[in-house]
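Response to reviewer comment R2.3. The reviewers asked that we include at least one raw input/output pair. We reproduce the pair for DegT/DnrJ/EryC1/StrS family aminotransferase here without editing.
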Amino acid sequence: MSQEFIPPAKPIIGDEERRAVDAVLATGQLAQGAEVAEFEKEFSQVLLDGRAAVAVNSGTSGLHLGLLAAGIGPGDEVIVPSFTFAATANSVALTGATPVFADIELDHYTLDPASVEAMITDKTAAIMPVHLYGHPFDVDAIGALAAKHGVKVFEDAAQAHGAAVNGRKVGTFGDFAMFSLYPTKNMTSGEGGMVSTGLTDVERRLRLLRNQGMERQYENELVGFNARMTNIHAAIGRVQLTKVGGWTRTRQENAAFLDANLSGVITPEVAEGCEHVYHQYTIRVPEGRDAFAQALKDEYNVGCGVYYPIPNHRLAPFQTDDELPVTEEAAQTVLSLPVHPSLSQNDLERIVEAVNKLAKAGS
Ligand SMILES: *Cc1c(COP(=O)(O)O)cnc(C)c1O
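Raw output as returned:
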């Protein structure tokens, strides 16, 4: 096996990011300050059509503080997918509320509105769907359901920077939304998160919760955290923000090439009116997925990943007897192939050849 390994994800950090960090270090103003404020303003303009953005130290903090700021706590139920990264349910549980798991639709791996409706009780306070893999959840159906039952909608947009529905950006639909800035996401600040909200009282509580409950120094108004982003991280994020649009176009071109050339596997579908930003390019291998993934790595040196092999409702902290058959099927059959913007044409051709050969051998 002489060919180089194709990694499943690859953060792109260039000279501009290095220079921006250096400039912050030179000022000596390392903690949250002007750089963070500028990052919030720019993120709002570029990705949120002007909706307010509040920077925090991780995506998980963003969900947790967003839930607290929106008034979620003990006694509340929040409906979430089981087919997601555990941070979604963790953040609900950390508020003292109960995460309630609903099933997904197999076409887009996002919450199935019919399953969500079946889980609504008189304790349901909110629905928090995930724009999984960079594909928007069904914002119209979930929005209609929330209005009908008088519950809130929060968006886990950790994987969906720039995704949109009929031209409207994700992150502008819910009472609040969270974007992760972890290194493998579509853009990064090192670690970090951005919370958007159109509600001024939620925005104010977010800013208080992030900084020990203080707006003015030593005049603490509530019990809060230290969840601040540093100027150093914001400097990286600001540079990345100028590049994420181009990277997304490259991801979409890479996905189009894979769509057109893969055979023998189930390729991702994009719902009518949706812009998919391909945080992951996720296929399904109906039989023998694990052996397929192993062979892709061992025989072809093509990296890949399973997101996520164990549904949240089967994990120790959240164990339930819920039957979520579509979630179970997805967990057993999904496989994400490299789609990141650093892939060369040769890489893409190697991925196609490897997948098609393995699919043919397995059929
Ligand atoms: C990455 C991720 C998170 C958590 O973000 P962090 O920045 O890693 O804390 C939450 N939800 C989903 C769906 C994610 O992919």
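The longest strand covers residues 52-56. The mean pLDDT is 97. Further pairs are available on request from the corresponding author.
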